[in-house]
Amino acid sequence: GSGSGKTTSIVDPMLLHMENSNLIGVFTKKGRIEEASRILKKRGYKVHLLDFVHPESSTYGFDPLRGCKSEADVKSLSQAIISEIPGKRASDPFWENSAEELIQLVMMFVWKGYYPHGKDMLTAIRLLDSLHHDSCFDRDAEDWDESDRLECPLHYALRNLKKLMPESYSIWANFNNGADATSSSITSSTRTPLAQVFNVDIRRILANPRCFDFRRFLSAKTALFVYISPVNMAHHRFIGLFYQQVFKQLFEMAESRRDGILPYPVQVICDDFATGCRIPDFPALISIFRAKRIAATMLIQSESQLESLYTKAEAATIINNCDTLVYLGGMDLETCRRMSERSNLPLDEVLAMPVGWEYFFRRGQRGLVTRRYDLYKDPVYLEAAAHAPVA
Asked: What's the angle, vertex CA 58, arms to CA 229 and CA 262, rounded to 5?
């Protein structure tokens, strides 16, 4: 639950005692990143920072389109972007499906290099932004003519689409030649996910030409910290795309090696894992982590919170692929019932577990009821605190 000590008793000790694994840590507290970075640097780690909160000072940018290696990757990315539409109308998916096709078409056009001004995500977004100008569609205006459409950068860029991408031309033709009201509605349906996922800060991250090279994780003692806002949901939505790219690239790097595994294990620490961040395909991805020497530590406030982002079956798959489960207490009754079943203890005993205690479950072992880890007695923590700079 909130305030139960998940970070203090789970994540901080892991960071303090990390010696050999490479690390990817996503956090909402800059101070925790600074403390961990200081300790890891003393151990010889090369520490890198991707800062979504202050993108103007971020060492690196991140572009999910650049990470796409195939047309299937581009399609998967466009599906992930459109899935951020709030309140999707399952009974009438026409607008969302049409918006997804349009976003996918533009991203594919840019990714294939047919647009001379860039092959990156920001270029694709700016082309889609140009559709939001009413002059592209307002045929009822007294001075409107076909040249108004060609003044729209996207219309001009796609003027030779039939020759370059004949398999996608019908999508563009249906959009371009449809009724103005229909085309405008489809355009509006693209606006929502683009605004939800790619706000000003995220666009600055996309604009940074220095993207982090995940091949660094083929070398020892590499740490990447990612700083996101605890309240800006656009950061959380975009971080879902980031996670997807991280796991995909780590998997592909392992597959490219003769032994099929990463040379150094990679520990991915996901603070506030279920805070508005649904990772596309994560239930399937987590099942192959172990085989590639990838590990994930996910902090959630309740199993119900996980089920709010994934289906009940998907949430169960995620939990079942974890070797270790630590429960630090909380008020979610359904989670308490499941802990009661796991520990074979009465429900009221689980509900009344004192603050500072935990239920600890590990695959192949009986569950334990024990005190949670006391960070403030950790010798490494005490030494680090003694040498920490005074603000």
From this structure: 90
Q: Give the start-end residues of each E strand in the chain.
A: 22-27, 46-51, 222-227, 266-270, 294-298, 324-327, 357-362, 368-371
Angle value at C-alpha 256, between 253 and 261, nearest 5 degrees: 65
Token couple for 63 = 């572009």
Reported residue count of the chain is: 391
Report d(CA 231, CA 236) in Å as an integer: 9
Which letter does DSSP use for residue 329 in this model?
-
Nearest in space to 10 (alpha carbons), one of 343, 276, 378, 379: 378
Residue with tokens 């990390």: 18
Say how many C-beta atoms besides its own lie within 10 A of residue 60's C-beta.
17
Q: Which one-letter DSSP state was computed for residue 54?
A: S
The residue among 198, 207, 100, 117 whose CA lies nearest residue 154 is 117
Q: Is the dihedral of CA 49, 50, 52, 58 positive or negative?
A: positive
Amino acid at 388: A
Instruction: Name every residue whose Cβ is closer than 8 Å to that of residue 244 and which is 6 or more positions away in sequence.
Output: 64, 76, 80, 279, 280, 281, 282, 285
Q: What is the pLDDT along the chain (391 residues), one digit of tens a residue?
A: 777 888 899 999 999 999 889 999 999 888 889 989 999 999 999 999 999 999 888 999 999 999 899 999 999 898 888 875 555 545 457 888 888 899 999 999 999 999 999 999 999 999 998 886 554 555 555 554 555 555 688 888 998 999 999 999 999 998 888 777 788 888 888 888 888 889 888 999 999 989 999 999 999 999 999 998 888 877 888 888 898 889 989 999 999 999 999 999 999 998 878 765 778 888 988 999 999 999 999 999 888 888 888 889 999 999 999 999 999 998 889 999 999 999 999 999 999 999 899 999 999 999 999 999 999 999 988 887 777 665 5
Q: Global pTM?
A: 0.86
In this structure, are residues 89 and 95 in contact, taking their beta carbons and an 8 Å threshold? yes
